[in-house]
Amino acid sequence: MHAFDYQAPTTVAEAIQLMAKHKGTARPLAGGTDLIDQMRVGRLTPDVLIDVKKLKELNVLTADGEGLHIGAAVPCYRIYGNETVNSQYTALADSCHIIGGIQIQSRASIGGNLCNSGPAADSTPSMIALGGICVIAGSEGTREVPVESFCTGPGKNVLEPGELLVEVRFPRRPANSGSHYRRMIPRNEMDIAVVGVGASVVLDDSGENIASARIGIGAVAPTPLFAQAASDLLAGQPVNDESLEKAAAAAREVASPITDMRGTREYRIHVTGVLVKRVLQAAIARARGEQLDYCRGR
Predict the structure, then answer these.
(1) Burial, 12: exposed, middle or buried (Cβ in 10 Å; 0-12, 13-18, 19+)?
(2) 11 phi and psi angles, rounded to 5 deg
(3) Exposure winner among 50, 159, 270, 283, fewest CB in 10 A?
(4) Which residues of 247-266 are buried (b: 16+ CB within 10 A; e: fewer)?
């Protein structure tokens, strides 16, 4: 690994000043589970690592009248161990349970997962499905970006030099709502999604019709996607196979995957439709208050 400097600011303002000072040659360090590995193999060669793991704003995990606030450095084990997340933002808990093993989950964060901007990131489709908003701080102030607009390409995102992702904010969950995340991997030893799908639904009071839905899909394009057309198709529709099949077909239409060692383009498109339907069924079951029999370990 190349030589680099290390800084540990005590405030967000100080971290931003350091980021701006080094003009794109510095990298924030939170969990480091992706960053350190990429530095080892020479993919990234920052001059300075700026440790933001202990900044209080990046460690917030609270629910209030606006919704859920998760700091960019909050590790996965804290997220899936949170009562509000487990009862209202279940897709996020699903994602955090399958990001590596317990050692990784003790360090890795959804903020780091998002900033790494991998197309197959497990937490990003869930954040899209739950309507997540990225709160970004920089020398010019604070701005907000929807999660679905954050990634701009493999390993690339909207962060400008000197900017820092502080938290991801999620709106309050309405009554009769449920969410789920599921991925397909070829085997347990290859812990990267061939396709990943997160979905959130809101049902009407009868539980028989879909009031609204959001579907996020990963590993089928250069960035994780908000399948808006598929989501919009579900609004006002009855809960039945026909409605779910139409949404699955629309999700397949927006998928533009590559062929690689984990699967062919055609296979990924097929799996996208299968997973969208299954994940929607699980989200609907949760919205109805049913217990979901799903192994989060994989």
Answers:
(1) middle
(2) -140, 160
(3) 270
(4) bbebbbebbebeeeebbeee
d(CA 280, CA 241): 11
- Among 171, 193, 221, identify where a domain stops: 171
Q: What is the dihedral of CA 200, 178, 294, 117, to 10 degrees?
A: 30
161 and 181 both lie in a single domain: no
Per the structure, the count of domains in the chain is 2
Q: What is the pLDDT of residues 116-159, one digit of tens each?
A: 999 999 999 999 999 999 999 999 999 999 999 999 999 999 99
Given a cut of 90, whether residue 219 has pLDDT beyond it is yes
Q: Kindly state the tokens that stand for 220.
A: 């089928």
* pLDDT score of 207 more than 90: yes
Based on the fold, state whether residues 42 and 154 are members of the same structural domain: yes
Nearest Cα to 173, choosing from 202, 144, 206? 202
